[in-house]
Design brief:
alpha/beta; Arc Repressor Mutant, subunit A; 5-stranded parallel beta sheet; 241 residues; single chain; 2 domains; 9 helices
Length: 241
């Protein structure tokens, strides 16, 4: 489930992005209105978290522009909490309004409520939970259970598994995984990626050398396979990653 944050306070922007990513959301961030509109057009997020008080193009203008082309749900964030400001936001097409400072748990609940109303909540549940009777992964609760036993994953292992699972069924290229999980400066570190894939297989697979969940597309990347009995592909070495 993809969310877009449009917030000019970089510290708050990063705080919100990190927290929402820990809940299993895919998060895009913009620090200004024009950048946010461009990202909204390209990425088609399920929800936009929009700050009002921004220099240049403020949140009111962004909301008005979004509503000319999109029905994407909008949650407005602002230090302004007067009734007339709330009404203005709702009249422009915002779906909800949260006054700063706010509790992160309240933000979570408002996002979940908006997504349920928009019909995106069911899609999010499907993408965030995998259960084939042997392995259960719940990204929102950060729970991984294999044959009834809890599996401990390091933060990096969980980020890698989360990204693969959200892209389930698709071969994710090595460079994309390295950028999303470790950062763009690690884009050539395929040996490190291979090591972490091996760690995950040792913890999740029935037979690590014959993976059924995290499968290799030789020379391209990895795929989280939702079909039981995925074809064995051996353990990848650095020469193939």
């Amino acid at each position: 489930m993809k969310l877009l944050i449009i917030e000019d306070d970089i510290t708050l922007n990063r705080l919100l992005a990190g927290h929402l990513q820990s809940l299993g959301y895919e998060v895009l961030s913009a620090s200004g209105g024009a950048e946010g509109l461009e990202l909204a057009e390209k990425a088609k997020p399920a929800l936009v978290i929009l700050d009002i008080m921004m220099p240049g193009m403020d949140g009111w203008q962004v909301c008005r522009r979004l509503r000319t082309t999109s029905t994407v749900p909008i949650l407005m964030l602002t230090a302004k909490g007067a009734q007339e400001d709330v009404l203005q936001g709702l009249e422009l097409g915002a779906d909800d309004y949260l006054k700063k400072p706010f509790d992160l748990r309240e933000l979570e609940l408002r996002i979940e409520a908006i997504l349920r109303r928009s019909g995106a909540g069911a899609m999010r549940d499907q993408k965030n939970v995998f259960d084939d009777g042997i392995l259960r992964i719940d990204l929102e609760r950060r729970q991984v259970v294999r044959r009834g036993q809890a599996v401990h994953l390091t933060p990096t292992e969980f980020r890698l598994l989360s990204y693969l699972m959200r892209q389930r069924g698709r071969v994710v290229p090595h460079q994309e995984l390295l950028t999303e999980v470790w950062g763009p400066e690690y884009v050539q570190d395929t040996a490190n990626l291979s090591v972490y894939v091996r760690y995950l297989r040792e913890k999740l697979e029935i037979v690590p050398g014959e993976p059924r969940y995290i499968c290799t597309e030789w020379g391209v990347g990895y795929r989280f396979d939702t079909l039981s009995g995925g074809s064995p592909d051996g353990l990848p070495g650095p020469a193939h990653t």
